[in-house]
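Entry for the shared binder. Reason: the reviewer on the internal report wants the predicted structure included alongside the sequence.
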Amino acid sequence: MFNLKGKVVLVTGATRGIGKGIAISLARKGAIIYFTGRTEKEYQGAVKLGGSIEATEQAIKQVGGIGYGIKCDHKDDIQTKMVIDKIVLEQGRIDILVNNVWGGYEYFNDGTEFWNEKGFWTAPISRFDKMFESGVRAHYVTTCYTVPSMIKQKSGLIVNISYWAAERNDMGVAYGMAKAATNKMTETMAHELREHNISVVTVYPGLVRTESVIKSAEFFDLSNSESTEFIGLAIAALATDLNVLEKSGTKQIAAQVALDYGYKDIDGKQPIPLNKSNCQ
């Protein structure tokens, strides 16, 4: 199911969490994976969690996949362009771009605990900057550099990872703004790229068992959680759908995609799709 053999994929921000899971999941399906990250050594990243470029490469090899990690700070446009140029030089194309990189979770070590803050005005302004610079802007710039090769090949799928915070008012001002901006970026990019046969979709995960969630498992109800690879299966399903252009510009919920295309998570469970009233 969902054969991606020979497809060239770039996943940004894949040393841990959802990005790593997406890279592994798509590699299982036969894609040639390129991924970016900043962490070269375990527990040496901005967030003190396991995960590194080498670890993701090894995880891809363990599932029989092909994966190449590239160190990149997506706040630096030159580094981002060098990544795209390298892939196009080596493979001649990019079939799928997954914009996953994100800087907002650095609030764990930016000098303030978000759960103790009384409102957005008590949070450091730098957190807003990280969410937009390392998130929204990084997605925009990476897409700008990728699109010319997709236009040339007259095909492509661009996936922007977002979340329900875009549609709620109680998940943080900066976070909600960043995710809403990501969603609008999907809609407007889809409008301009439709004539080039390039699809752009937003994908929402549910509660994902990332390293940070597992570390704080006592605070979460994991009964309806998703593996880090689950959202990758959603991307694989969309990428192999011959009519995916009809979904361009839309928000896709990973768990609903699983129901629509008839598959389960890698642990055999069927996560129930969340909505804006019951997401965590």
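Summary line for the report: The beta strands are 8-11, 32-37, 66-71, 96-99, 156-161, 198-204, 251-253.
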